[in-house]
Amino acid sequence: MIDNETEKNKKFALTTPLYYVNNVPHIGSAYTTMVADVIARSKRLQGNSTLLITGVDEHGQKIQRTAEKKGIPPQKHCDEIVSSFKSLWQKLNISNHRFIRTTSSTHHILVKEFFKKVWDQGDIYLDRQQGWYCVACEEFKDKRELTADNYCPIHTNLKAEWRDEENYFFRLSKYQKILENFYQENPDFIQPESRKNEILNFVKQGLKDFSISRINLDWGFPIPTDANHTIYVWFDALLGYVTALLDEDQEANLDNALKKWWPINLHLIGKDILRFHAVYWPAMLFSAGLTPSNKVFAHGFLTKDGQKMGKSLGNTVDPVALVESYGADAVRYYFLKEIELGRDGDFNETRFINVVNADLANDLGNLLNRTLGMLNKYFKGSLSNLTGTDIPEDNPLKIIGLNLGDRVLEAYNLLKFSQACLEIFTLIRACNKYIDDSAPWSLFKQDRKSEVETILYTVLESIRLSAYLLSPIIPTLSTNIYKQLGFSIDFNNLNFHLISQDNLHHQWGKLSINQNLNKPSPVFSKLELPSENTQ
Ligand code: MSP
């Protein structure tokens, strides 16, 4: 069944990371955002009112240097890049409600207010920072974290830089015990389990205060108490999650921001930024007298054809090209089905095409087409009002279909998307087998019409349920399937769950298929590799 947290809490707020605007979005950012959208949609499907937050992280040295290289002011650079994020999210059919920019004036107001709370707590002090700084990570690194010639393992094309400067520090060490107790009392706070252990080990080694200001850097908010310093980009960026909670017409202050949606239910991030979210962020919130978010889930990294992706390697995957060539549903389906959330995953274009064609075009699309074809041919496109209760208990599709909705929604709530797909496609494949085995065309010839009707109803109802349950992942295809079956639900309408509040849609056999189309038309065209197009 649907887990307790969801049953009790009918509100669900989640975030993607706020992406650096040093460059246009890469496939890693697209991956996180697609997954976050699927979570948001699956929550909406269960009647939760849902807020999906995404946005961009615009300050810091990395952005400043990128703008300098382009010879334009950083704000202009950010403005240029931001539109590429917004347009990709639109192309990928991301149903975000909030898009936060950390250069916004409301954000500045909230950062100042938050800083003051931490300052008043006595948790900020001036000291000397010496160490190796990776500008790409925007993070000081321990010498032992770097390679022998001072490269950080994530950014092998950018050397860490030695820094020796005066910085303001946040008293993280003060929160050692508090954090340890917090992890113990909230065993699900860090997911998946393997990542949690990584963080517990890190914390066990003893937390060190970290610097939250930079000198010789203009691009950022000034430290409210000392304008010679700029607030460290991570201190500023994490607070973007709070600013994003403000309604447009609300006065910018922490109380207003926190009123409706705090604590955030889930931060979905990549594994490389877990420490910031699972250690620094809750400590900052404790210091300001706030409760931490409910959960941080760190997903794995993507590779291309089994290799680490990188510009210098020339093997990056461009998410814009991908969605423009193949469409949003295909891209979303591949990444959600093929990669178990939390593990590293690979993108390979041939595999992508094979998976999508096999599942969406053949097993699902063709099934709908051939079944509706028979319905038209044998019954002029309509069934007498059959429902699941008219179908014998031992019907193979009824057996699978009856509890499928509960199982799949549970998988969604556990963020097990590959498993959700697997369960749904077990039913879809069983439909294909059922038609082949029962051969309705010969039954029709023998004038066994009611048997044929039973077969067509059970198959079409199974397709309907499958489309409904797949709608968080492939919303447009699901809407088209629903349309062909005579239902008018648009899964891209964010309020659709309000329309179908009596929701019987996740239960097999509760609905009669009143489809009234004359001609079935293919809902999903087979994908082809671009090179094949030209042959
Ligand atoms: N700006 C910070 C986040 C601040 S959140 C308050 C940041 N931005 S980022 O643009 O560099 O990274 C965004 C996300 O992309 C991270 O979650 C990171 O894990 C993810 N990925 C970067 N490369 C990736 C892959 N190759 N594969 C999957 N995700 C990857 O960090």
Q: What does the secondary structure layout of this molecule look like, with pairings?
A:
Elements: H1 4-8, E1 11-20, H2 27-45, E2 49-57, H3 61-70, H4 74-91, E3 98-101, H5 105-120, E4 124-134, E5 139-141, E6 161-170, H6 176-185, E7 190-191, H7 193-204, E8 210-211, E9 213-214, E10 222-223, E11 226-231, H8 233-238, H9 240-243, H10 254-259, E12 266-270, H11 274-287, E13 296-299, E14 302-304, E15 307-308, H12 319-326, H13 328-338, E16 345-347, H14 349-379, H15 396-401, H16 404-413, H17 417-438, H18 440-445, H19 449-470, H20 475-484, H21 496-499, H22 530-533
Parallel strand pairs: 1-2, 1-12, 2-3, 7-13, 12-13, 14-16
Antiparallel strand pairs: 4-5, 4-6, 6-8, 9-11, 10-11, 14-15
Helix pairs in contact: 3-4, 12-13, 13-14, 14-17, 14-19, 16-17, 17-19, 19-20
5'-O-[(L-methionyl)-sulphamoyl]adenosine is lined by residues 17-20, 28-29, 31-32, 57, 237-238, 240, 269-270, 272-273, 301-302, 309.
Summarize this entry quickly.
This protein is α/β, with parallel strands linked by helices and 535 residues long.
List keywords for this structure.
535 residues, alpha/beta, Isoleucyl-tRNA Synthetase, Domain 1, six-stranded parallel beta sheet, four-stranded antiparallel beta sheet, 22 helices, binds 5'-O-[(L-methionyl)-sulphamoyl]adenosine
Description:
The protein is 47% helix and 15% strand. The relative contact order is 0.11. Strand 14 and strand 15 (307-308) form a beta hairpin. It contains 22 helices and 16 strands. It starts with a helix and ends with a helix. The strands form four sheets. The chain has a six-stranded parallel β-sheet, sandwiched between helices. It is of the alpha/beta class and 535 residues long. The chain has a domain at 349-533: Isoleucyl-tRNA Synthetase, Domain 1 (Orthogonal Bundle).
